[in-house]
Design brief:
615 residues; alpha+beta; Penicillin-binding protein 2a (Domain 2); Beta-lactamase; 21 strands
């Protein structure tokens, strides 16, 4: 029996030599498999596994760049950077997203859905290894709670971020604008692709217009971490680089004066240097808190601002469209002089009414102004005089000279979303309203009403052109020259209007007495120590603005636009108060305060201040 079993065993395993050969075959086959696998890992997939190995050792956290400062013309800092805390998620490092987001939401005291929305907003356009900001503006208490829980939140971390610090009390908010995190649509532009998530980009105002100048270069932080993501030590960091700073043409003292005079009233103030177009102040009210808009905002709060009846997001200085009222009589006068339809010395009798067909037009002064000529017609803003002149000229001639002075077109100021007013004529009405021009539409047009609309900045440029005898400068907000902006922006060569010097002299002398003469409509603007010329305007409108919606006869818009000193113009001031009433009594005193501040801050160094004003 034992012999039989031995025989069967020998047949199954063969001889010793055969068994040795089988073992060698198995060995070589195994070695071949190992070699093939090593080749696959070390050669074919070398870069793939190398990247994985490095990622497992060195963690690179991108750091947003610092934006440059923004100062006024005298170096007063208006916008700078401060610290902010934000919590980030690196999607590919997260093990249980649902559970960890719930823990994080509990630490932050917010809903998990809000954190998820922040992630979803960018996860489709960013690779999973790029950290995504979930919430910014963390308090120290929130930072402390999250830091204590980081051991159970793989893929999450707290990072110090730069944030913009803006002036208090909404100072110059429309002018400066604000920054916000970029959106998926922003990533379609090549400029933003190199910026890490959480970087602030300009959304409006100077922040948007000069975003490429203010934006710095991102940096990075490198950590050596273990297999659980715990930091072992810091490696060499690449600090972010700050962007270039901007020095604006704005004088913060004039800006504060302009905003103070507006108070709680809706309106705008523009002050500029007519010699070169430098904007000295640009105010719009109501305004907004730039810091509030720069932070993550709840949708209901955003919708509240967007749909607010007073439209705080609208920059009225460059986007508000208003009838200019009697300030437009400057253009009608220039048109009459140029077309030889107006004799400045010829007498005209104003009886208080002017009839066109079956329509009677009335002067603002009951009973009229009596017998007068051009000088007193401008000084006292006689409507009947300009109704008659307008009918003599016709709408097309008036529109031609309005456009010559830049009305109906953007000024080219270096701010985004500027709007242009409307200068109507026969062709315009036919094209847009599909109707002919009726004779009764010309008298209102001649005194700045009807279909005509302008922005306060357009009117400031018009008055600057008159002050400089036809020289028209492009308004701008950034000082030229230097190493930051040697040739940046839209500023072009100063243009000139082909109107004779003597015509400008006639109109300017008339505008001087609007302010200086005791019966001038702009006399409330008068300053004994500072010679001012200008024009008031009162434009009745049917409005849907704010609380005036639905009323047929709201109070008129109040205008004053002027320049000074009369002998050597250095500043133009345009003031618009929505539904303010009489231009001389409402807009005029506000303009006077801007002129007064300009005299104290700019001319006081050139000549002694009057007694009682130095304080």
């Amino acid at each position: 029996m034992a012999l039989e079993f031995h025989s069967r065993k020998k047949g199954f395993f063969g001889s010793s030599r055969a068994r040795l050969q089988v073992l060698f075959l198995i060995f070589w086959l195994g070695l071949l498999v190992v070699i093939i696998r090593l080749y696959d890992v070390q050669v074919i997939k070398y870069h793939h596994y190398l990247a994985l190995a490095q990622d497992n050792v060195v963690k690179v956290v991108p750091v947003p760049p610092l934006r440059g400062e923004i100062t006024d013309r005298n170096g007063v800092v208006l916008v700078h950077n401060g610290p902010d805390f934000a919590v980030f998620e690196t999607p590919y490092e997260v093990k249980d997203a649902r559970r960890e987001l719930a823990w994080l939401a509990e630490d932050l005291g917010v809903s998990g859905q809000s954190l998820k929305r922040s992630l979803i907003r960018l996860e489709d356009v960013l690779p999973p290894h790029v950290p995504v900001p979930l919430k910014t503006g963390l308090s120290m208490a929130q930072v402390g709670r999250v830091n204590m829980d980081l051991y159970r939140l793989p893929g999450f971390f707290i990072q110090v971020m730069p944030k913009r610090i803006y002036p208090a009390d909404e100072l110059a908010s429309h002018l400066l604008g604000y920054v916000g995190s970029f959106t998926p649509s922003d990533l379609k532009g090549s400029f933003y692709r190199h910026l890490p998530p959480g970087t602030g980009i300009g959304k409006t105002g100077i922040e948007k217009e000069y975003d490429s100048v203010l934006q710095g270069i991102p940096g990075s932080i490198r950590h050596l971490v273990d297999s659980h993501g715990r930091m072992i030590k810091n490696l060499k960091d690449d600090p972010p680089k700050e962007g270039k700073s901007l020095r604006l043409t704005i004088d913060v003292r004039l800006q504060m004066t302009a905003e103070r005079l507006l108070g709680d009233r809706r309106g705008a103030v523009v002050a500029l240097d007519p010699r070169n177009g430098e904007v000295l102040a640009l105010a719009s009210h109501p305004a907004y808190d730039s810091e509030e808009l720069s932070q993550a905002m709840k949708s209901d709060r955003w919708n509240q601002m967007v749909h607010a009846p007073d439209h705080p997001l609208t920059n009225r200085a460059i986007q508000g469209l208003y009838p200019p009222g009697s300030v437009f009589k400057i253009v009608t006068t220039m048109a009459g002089l140029m077309e030889h339809k107006l004799d400045p010395g010829k007498s005209f009798k104003c009886g208080g009414t002017f009839r066109v067909g079956s329509v009677n037009f009335h002067d603002w002064k009951r009973g009229g102004h009596g017998t007068l000529h051009l000088h007193r017609a401008i000084e006292q803003s006689c409507d009947i005089f300009f109704y008659h002149l307008g009918m003599t000229l016709g709408p097309d001639a008036i529109a031609h000279y309005a456009r010559l002075f830049g009305l109906g077109s953007r000024t080219g100021i270096d701010l985004p979303s500027e709007l242009a007013g409307t200068v109507p004529d026969r062709a315009w009405k036919k094209k847009y309203l599909h109707a002919p021009w009726y004779p009764g539409e010309t008298p209102p047009f001649a005194i700045g009403k009807g279909f005509l609309t302008v922005t306060p900045l357009e009117m400031a440029r018009l008055m600057g052109t008159v002050a400089m005898n036809g020289q028209m400068a492009v308004p701008h907000l950034v000082l030229r020259g230097g190493s930051v902006l040697p040739n940046h922006g839209r500023k072009g060569p100063v243009s000139r209007i082909s109107i004779p010097q003597e015509d400008f002299t006639i109109v300017k002398n008339d505008l001087r007495d609007v302010v200086a003469a005791p019966h001038g409509t702009g006399h409330p603007v008068n300053l004994e120590f500072f010679s001012i010329a200008g024009k008031t305007g009162t434009a009745q409108v049917v409005s849907n603005r704010g609380k005036m919606r639905g009323r047929k006869r709201p109070k008129a818009d109040s205008w004053f636009v002027g320049f000074g000193p009369f002998e050597n113009p250095r500043i133009v001031v345009a003031v618009l108060v929505e539904n303010g009433g009489d231009g001389g009594d409402v807009a005029g005193p506000g303009a006077r305060e801007v002129f007064r501040m300009f005299y104290v801050t700019h001319l006081g160094r050139e000549k002694p201040l009057p007694q009682g004003l130095a304080s």
